[in-house]
């Protein structure tokens, strides 16, 4: 929803300015982060894109983003709406906040029958991250996967961020992930302040989840069970959200899932705040200059 960013950041252009000329306004011909994500996913071998969006932005999203891909890869749209809950649950009067990323993923259950990856629309993960995730999904194993990034490389200079801070065992398996929702950079280090005002000091070296996951379809029934538990405990809270990392953490704790952590060396960047936008544009321009992306993704 872009409350901190101040707009619909998923469709804000970040690619280089187009050459002079052409029929379309320059802004509509510039790539978004989603363009780079889909481009990387296609060349890593992913075969279908499912967008989870709000119904009220469907048309501008289709026109601005989805139209670029429809002749390149199958595209489906599913909608995260507050009222889409299991029987026996209802939206408390006055609630407008979405139910969180676990609920968003559940909206795609009918559209997915194969191993799949999950990403945020406003995060740039890097081409190698997609290749690693695709290779993991092709392996045919029953384990899930998570691409992990180094905390200090995921912070904003312009305000607090939420990150899933991970613990990983000697076999490379995720043992826990805790969503810290108010992490602030302090040089190469950081600190988090929780709702009760307690402060946790972070070294900056911690592996974090940026919501780049690899799952098999069995995850949907598991996550539905966890989401029902969440609604039973927190459904009347007007601000509560069921975060995907927290749900995965619950599955791990119950022995219901194993998650391999894939350590990405790629540069991550995203647009939590409006001021982050300039850094993203500059970073993508540098990758284009280095030959990692063409100047125009879609000819």
Structure description:
The protein has seven helices and twelve strands. It is α+β, with helices and mostly antiparallel strands. The chain has a single domain, classed as Spore Coat Polysaccharide Biosynthesis Protein SpsA, Chain A, CATH 3.90.550. The strands form three sheets. Strands 3, 5, 6, 7, 8, 9, 10 and 11 form an eight-stranded mixed beta sheet that branches. Strand 7 (174-186) and strand 8 form a beta hairpin. Helix 1 (33-44) crosses helix 4 and helix 5 (219-234) packs across helix 6 (244-253). The longest helix has 16 residues, at 219-234. It is globular, with a radius of gyration of 19 Å. The chain starts with 32 loop residues before the first helix and ends in a 10-residue tail after the last helix. Mean pLDDT is 88; it is low at 1-7 and 22-27.
Estimated structural class: alpha+beta
Say what the CATH topology is. Answer: Spore Coat Polysaccharide Biosynthesis Protein SpsA, Chain A
Determine the strand fraction and express it as a percent band.
15-25%
User: Would you state the CATH class?
Assistant: Alpha Beta
- The CATH superfamily label reads Spore Coat Polysaccharide Biosynthesis Protein SpsA, Chain A
């Amino acid at each position: 929803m872009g409350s901190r960013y101040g707009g619909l950041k998923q469709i804000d252009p970040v690619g280089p300015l187009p050459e002079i000329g052409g029929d379309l306004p320059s802004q509509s011909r510039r790539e978004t982060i989603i363009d780079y994500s889909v481009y990387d996913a296609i060349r890593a071998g992913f075969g279908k894109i499912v967008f989870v969006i709000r119904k009220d932005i469907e048309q501008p999203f289709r026109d601005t983003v989805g139209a670029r891909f429809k002749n390149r890869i199958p595209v489906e749209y599913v909608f995260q709406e507050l009222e889409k809950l299991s029987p026996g649950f209802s939206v408390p009067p006055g609630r407008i906040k979405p139910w969180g990323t676990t609920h968003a993923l559940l909206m795609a259950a009918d559209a997915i029958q194969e191993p799949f990856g999950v990403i945020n629309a406003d995060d740039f993960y890097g081409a190698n991250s997609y290749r690693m995730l695709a290779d993991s999904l092709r392996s045919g194993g029953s384990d899930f996967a998570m691409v992990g990034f180094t905390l200090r490389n995921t912070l904003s200079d312009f305000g607090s961020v939420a990150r899933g801070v991970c613990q990983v065992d000697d076999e490379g398996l995720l043992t826990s992930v805790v969503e810290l929702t108010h992490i602030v950079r302090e040089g190469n280090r950081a600190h988090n302040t929780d709702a009760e005002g307690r402060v946790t000091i972070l070294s900056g070296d911690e592996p974090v989840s940026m919501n780049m996951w690899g799952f098999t379809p069995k995850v949907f029934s598991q996550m539905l069970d966890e989401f029902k538990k969440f609604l039973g405990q927190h459904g009347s809270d007007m601000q509560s959200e069921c975060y995907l990392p927290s749900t995965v953490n619950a599955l791990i704790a119950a022995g219901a899932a194993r998650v391999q952590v894939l350590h990405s060396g790629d540069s991550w960047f995203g647009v939590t705040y409006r001021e982050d936008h300039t850094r993203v544009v500059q970073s993508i321009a540098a990758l284009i200059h280095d030959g990692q992306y063409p100047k125009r993704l879609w000819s």
